[in-house]
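INFO worker-7 received task bundle
INFO bundle size: 2
INFO processing item 0
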Amino acid sequence: MKQGVIPEHIAIIMDGNGRWAKARGLPRIVGHKKGADALRVVLSTCRDMGVRYLTLYAFSAENWERPQGEVTDLMNLLRNFLLKETKALHENGIKLTIIGDKARFSEDIRMAIKEAETLMKGNDAFHLQVALSYGSRQEIIHAVKLLAEAVKNNQLTSDAIDETTFANALYTQNIPDPDLLIRTGGEQRISNFLLWQCAYTEFYFTSTLWPDFSKEHLASAIIEFGNRERRYGRTES
C-alpha cells in the first residue's frame, strides 16, 4: 500500500449474515455469530493498519421489525458481546461508543452499554462506534429537535446554526466523517446509514457476505481507496 492512503475512519455495513447461514442450511443466528467472528478480525486488522476510527452498522432502527425470534437472538448476542468483550476492548485502549436510540433496548442492555462506555471513556488508542437501533434520518430529526430546543431556551440563535453546530448535535459528534464506507453482501445502497456524515465518503461495494469478509478483503478495499482521487467537489488542479 502507498504510504498516506490508509483511511482515518472506515464505516462498514455488515450485510449477509442471514444469507450466509441460509446457503448452508443453518439458522440465521449462526450467521450472526459467524459475523461476530468477522468483526473481531476486521477490528484487529484496522488497528494493525493504522485506521483510527471504525463505525459498524450492526442493527438498524428498521431491524426491530424482523421476526421476534431473530430479534431476541440478536439481543442475546449483543448482551453476550457487551459482557464478554468489554474488558478486552478496554485493555487494548479502545473507546467504544454506541450510536442510536438506546431507549428501545431492555434495561439490562442499556446498563451494560452505559458501563462499557463509561469504562472506556478515556481511551484513545482506537475508536469503535457501533450503530445499534440506528437510523440516519432519525438521527437527523433528533439533532434538529435538540437545536430547536436550544433556540427556544435562548441557548442558541438560529443564525449560529451552521454545519459544525449541526454535526455536533448528531450521535457522531467529535468523530470525523468516514473516509471509506464498505458494504458487504452485494447490495449497493447505504440503507439509512450516516447520511449526513457520508457527504464526501468513498464507497466500496463487495459481493462477499459479511461472515466471509477477511483481512484480505479489507486490504483490497483500502488499496482501491488509495487509488482514488478525492476532490471534495473541486476540479483537478
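INFO item 0 finished
INFO processing item 1
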Amino acid sequence: MRNLLTLFTGLMAVLAGAAVLTLSSCGGGSGNSSAPAAPVATAKPPAGQQWTDVYTKVGDGWVMQGNPNAPIKLVEYGSRTCPVCGIFAATGVEPLREKYIKTGQVSWEFHDFLVHPQDLGVALLGRCTSTEAFFPVLDQMYAQQTALNSKLTQETFDQYKNLGPLDQAKALVKFLGYDQLMMQAGVSQAQQDQCLTQPKMDVLMKQLEVASTDKKVGGTPTFFVNDKVVDGPSWAALEAALQQAGAH
C-alpha cells in the first residue's frame, strides 16, 4: 500500500500546483527494435459484424476492442485529458481501426493512467459505462478534450485544492462539463455518483500502481505491443511497432 499512497500523494501534489496543464508525463514510451516478425493472418469477424464492433471486458474498468484472439495485442496507457493522447486519438485511432483492428490482426485495450489533476474524476466516469459504450465514450472525451479543459486555470485548482480526492474529482468533472457528456451518453447522474466512490477509486489506484511499478509506465500515451513497450507516443511509432510484430 505504500507505493499506492505515494502515487496518489503525487497526483494530489500536481493538483496543488497545476498552472501547467501539459505535464512532462504527458507523452511517453520507449523501447528497442528487433527483427520483424512473420506476417500474421487476418481473421473473419462474426457474421454481420466488423471486428471494430466487438468489445470484450478484460478487467475491472478495462475493455478490449477487436478480435479477442488477435495475435497482436495492443495495450495503451492513456490520460483522457492529455493533449498528446488527444493527438493520437485524432491521427491514429482511425487508421488503427481501419487497417489493423478490422482485419482481426490487432486488438486494442485502453488502460487509464493519471497524469493531470482532473484525470481522477474523468477516468472514473469514463469507466462508468457498459462494455459496448466504453470506446464510444472514450472517443467523445478525446473529441471534446480541448473544449472541456479550456476552462482550467490556476484559480480553478486553488478553489478545489483543499478538498479531499473524491470531492476534488466530483467538483472538477462538474465544473468542466464531463458530467453532461456522460449524461448525453446515457449515464445518469445517479449512475455517475455510484462510480465516483472510494471503492472505485481504490481499484483504479491499485491499477495505476501496477502500471507504474511493474510496467514502468511514466507518461501518456504509452503503448505496449505484445507486452513490449513502443518507442514513442505517436501513431507513426505505434504503426511501425505493429508492423514489426507482423501486422500488414
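INFO item 1 finished
INFO post-check item 1: The chain is about 45% helix and 10% strand.
INFO post-check item 1: The chain has one domain: 2-13+51-244.
INFO worker-7 idle
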